[in-house]
Each structure stands twice: as C-alpha cells, then as structure tokens.
Design goal:
Helix content: 40-55%
Largest sheet: 9 strands, mixed
Distance between the termini: 51 Å
Strand content: 15-25%
Radius of gyration: 19 Å
Number of helices: 11
Number of strands: 11
Oligomer: single chain
C-alpha cells in the first residue's frame, strides 16, 4: 500500500498561482492524499478557492487553515500539525509540478532509501557562484570547478547541479518548495527551527534539510520536474528579505551547524563582503538588481547581530 502524502502549501493572497498549483496536483498520476493550504492572508479569496467543490469532485482533498500573521515557517508548521500523511510534500504556492512529478518523487524516495528528495525546476538552471565566490571556493575550500555541486559550503552557500544529472544525485540541502520528506525523519530532526523572526523566513529550507541530512541521505530527483513561476505578490521588500537572509544565515550557522560565535560571525561577514562586492560589480555593469536596498538590509542585520 502506498504511503499517505500530505501536501503542505503556505500562501499569502496569491489565489491565482495557488489555483494553478491545485490544478497541477489534480492532474498528477499520483495525487497527494490531502492538500493543506496554510493561508496567511487577510481576505477570503484563498479560503473560497480552497473550498471550491471542483477539487473534491476531481478527487483532490483540499483543506484550508488560517494562520496569521503571515510567517512561512509557522504556516508550514501549523499545516504539518494538522496533516495525516506519513510523507510530507512541501510546496510553494507558485510551483507547477509536471504530471508525473509526485510519482517520480515517491519512487526516488523509496528506491534510494532516502529521508528526503527534491524535484528539479524545469527551464530554470540552478544558480551558479559568481566570480568572487568561485575564487573563494577554489582558494579557501580547495574546490575545483563543479566540486561544490549538491553541497552546502562556508557561509551557507548551497548549490545544485549544472548540468542536471540523469540519475538521482546526492544533495546536502533541499528547498522547502519542491521536496518530499519522510514524516518520521522530520519529527526526529526536530522540524523547523524557531529562530526565524520575520515572515520572510529565508534559509528555513537549508536549516531543516541540514538537520535531516544528519538522519539519512537526500537526493535531487531529476525525473521529478516542476516549474517555479516566482509570483511577485505577497513578497516582502528586497531590504527586508536581505536583512532576514543575513540574520537567519547567522542563526543557522550558530545553532544548527553549531559553529562558535566567532566562526559564525566571520562567515556572515565574509558573505556580507563578497555579496556587496558582487553587487557593486553588477551595478557598474548597469545591473543594479536592488543593490542599495539589499545593502541596507544586510547592514541592518549586522547591526541587529552586533547589538543582540
């Protein structure tokens, strides 16, 4: 008998993208046994969408859970607490799985004896290190080009694969928007950490999967594919996201990786310096990409850490 799969979907006011996701789940060759939508929005649009009779008529059990104020980790935790499956399918509300994605994730999880497996993002290459980070990886960690693939290195630099391998490949981390996890492993790992201050709980995925990696193996499953549409609605500002990124990065290094205060601080400062230099270089090339807002956010995070 196939184990029960609970899809966990946090959202905040993005009913259009959520509808696309639910339609993609209806079309799966192996549907989740339940979908729990953890809604952090104030209005009723998401609730009405989740309650629409078309989902149950199509064989998809969708449940709505109100979680306010919005906070990605707390929304996921609340949904997981209400779930019944022995497997947790963590999804973002703006992904669209291909028709055989869930079945491929389940097959990979079982065949590899893994605690967690993640899907590949169709048409979206995994981010590669910038030139400065390549120098850091080469001269500080002694990694040749490509040796960092699938790993978490230094100040929580994490990498996928380019090109994507044909077979399941080991991963030291997985994202919280495309991953199938064994519930017993999630519980043994202690679930999500509680040090994420704000709703943009950046780095909660690497934090959770670093803990899962202590329990068992994790893999990228290239046969499971989904699109990630990166819907703009419901997001915090670039400044707030950059602040949370740096602050949370320190917390993961300090409390999850158990680094000393000095080591965690040095790694965070390294990240600050290299990202600032990379952003400045992009600015000079005419690609600002919110450089000023991100710099302000990271500076605020450093002040928060220095005074805490």
């Amino acid at each position: 008998m196939s184990p029960g799969i609970s899809a966990i979907v946090p959202t905040i006011g993005r009913a259009t993208s959520l509808a696309r996701l639910l339609e993609a789940l209806v079309a799966q060759t192996r549907r989740p046994d339940e979908v729990i939508v953890a809604d952090g929005s104030d209005g009723s649009e998401v609730e009405q969408l989740a309650a629409a009779p078309r989902w149950r008529a199509a064989g998809l059990d969708v449940r709505h859970l109100r979680v306010t104020p919005p906070h990605a980790v707390r929304q996921r935790e609340a949904a997981i607490a209400q779930s019944r499956g022995s497997l947790l399918l963590l999804l973002d509300d703006d992904v669209v799985p291909e028709r055989g994605c869930v079945a491929a994730l389940l097959s990979c999880l079982e065949s590899q004896g893994a605690v967690a497996v993640g899907a590949d993002f169709a048409g979206q290459p995994w981010p590669a290190p910038t030139t400065l980070w390549r120098w850091y990886l080469r001269w500080w960690h002694g990694l040749s080009p490509g040796e960092w693939q699938g790993k978490v290195v230094g100040p929580l630099l994490r990498f996928g694969y380019d090109p994507v391998p044909a077979r399941p490949a080991p991963m030291q981390w997985l994202g919280s928007g495309h991953t199938l996890i064994r519930r017993d492993a999630y519980d043994r790992a202690g679930g999500f950490s509680d040090f994420f201050l704000h709703r943009s709980s950046v780095n909660e995925d690497v934090d959770l999967t670093l803990k899962l990696g202590r329990i068992g193996a994790m893999f990228l499953c290239p046969g499971a594919r989904m699109a990630h549409l990166h819907e703009p609605g419901g997001r915090v500002t670039a400044r707030a996201a950059a602040e949370d990124d740096l602050y949370n990065r320190y917390c993961v290094l300090r409390y999850t990786q158990r680094r000393s205060r000095i080591a965690a601080a040095c790694l965070v400062l390294t990240f600050f310096v290299v990202e600032t230099l990379s952003g400045a270089a992009a600015l000079l090339r005419g690609k600002p990409d919110g450089f000023g807002a991100r710099l302000a956010g990271r500076t605020r995070a450093l002040i928060r850490l220095a005074t805490s």
